Amino acid sequence: MVGGGQLARMTHEAGIPLGINFKILSDTPQDSAAKVVREVVVGDYRDLDTLRAFAQGCDVITFDHEHVPTEHLRALEADGIPVRPGPAALVHAQDKGVMRARLSALGIPCPRHRIVTDPADVARFAHEEGGGFPVVLKTVRGGYDGKGVWVIDSAEDPAAAEPFRAGVPVLAEEKVDYTRELAANVVRSPHGQAVAYPVVESIQVRGVCDTVIAPAPGLPDELGAAAQQLALRIAAELDVTGHLAVELFETTDGRVLVNELAMRPHNSGHWTQDGAVTSQFANHLRAVLDLPLGDPRPRAPWTVMVNVLGGDYPDMYPAYLHCMARDPGLKIHMYGKDVKPGRKVGHVTTFGDDLAEVRERARHAADYLRGTIDE
């Protein structure tokens, strides 16, 4: 797996009972996965020679992020190294402009959008195609967790010039009138077997995923099924191998629009570690190794995952004692990261029959671990 973050750490964990020998290419020895995986190569994923050396002896290469240059992945494929998902698929998660163009050509519902060249072009898009201001601007490559995204309120907004300083193309999109964000997670193997997890509600705070509720409460059955079918169709049309997360807007008029794609295990699927028969991490490994996929069904009526962000407690061990004693059914997953304010350092998961109670348990634990509450 290229990347040494928490996704690699949790994917490695899922591979242990399957007997999978796991190697990672990590930026530093201190990365989350590098602290627990036996075979670690420290190097720059942007360097082709490093990637080629890392790939020697591997049955398949996969990823915990989308940032490996597309041309390097093509070179690995030309060397005869299986890359899953392949570069022809992964580019749609790497480049938002490519993704929007392809999905639109397939008739997949997306926000109105266009590549823009400068602030004046943003104003033209807003008035001619985007339905007016505000407009959302995104750098086509490199953004995540709210980074590389700007909401522009008017043609005179000083922030309108900011995205163009990055030196990469900028995508303008209408600001969608939506009721909430959803995610449809699916997994697809090389021979076309695919499974779909229940559609979840994803709650963002300042551009960062805070809470995931599985399944999305109050979602009409027909809309949930349509979202799953949409994600399965995207996986098939783009020839995705592995886990695909399709982030969606549920609009005020009862539709879903595609917001983003991720072709790797995803934050909106962390609930599956404890809440599904087979986790997203185990199914991603099964898919990239072309093993039969596991059952994606939930184990309980409701599962809630809340991210733990770094806060006032640099040492979280005393907080563990309180949370574990208060709620023996609580599941805590920490990533082995240094605690910094606002940094994702772990997540908690709760499950049960009563949604309100399950949410309260997860919220309390995450807030206590962060230090925002003390009782």
TrEMBL record:
Residue ranges of the TM segments: none
One GO MF term attached to the UniProt entry: 5-(carboxyamino)imidazole ribonucleotide synthase activity
Residues where ATP binds: K96, K138, E173, E174, K175, V176, E181, N259, E260
Enzyme class, spelled out: ligase
One of the GO BP terms on file: 'de novo' IMP biosynthetic process
Domain ATP-grasp, first and last residues per copy: 100-289
Alphabetical keyword list: ATP-binding, Ligase, Nucleotide-binding, Purine biosynthesis
GO cellular component: cytosol
EC number(s) per entry: 6.3.4.18
Leader peptide range in chain numbering: none
Chain's role: Catalyzes the ATP-dependent conversion of 5-aminoimidazole ribonucleotide (AIR) and HCO(3)- to N5-carboxyaminoimidazole ribonucleotide (N5-CAIR). Catalyzes the ATP-dependent conversion of 5-aminoimidazole ribonucleotide (AIR) and HCO(3)(-) to N5-carboxyaminoimidazole ribonucleotide (N5-CAIR).
Family: Belongs to the PurK/PurT family.
Record's subunit section: Homodimer.
Listed HAMAP family: PurK
Protein name, as recorded: N5-carboxyaminoimidazole ribonucleotide synthase
Biological source species: Streptomyces harbinensis
Organismal lineage: Bacteria, Bacillati, Actinomycetota, Actinomycetes, Kitasatosporales
Gene name of the encoded protein: purK
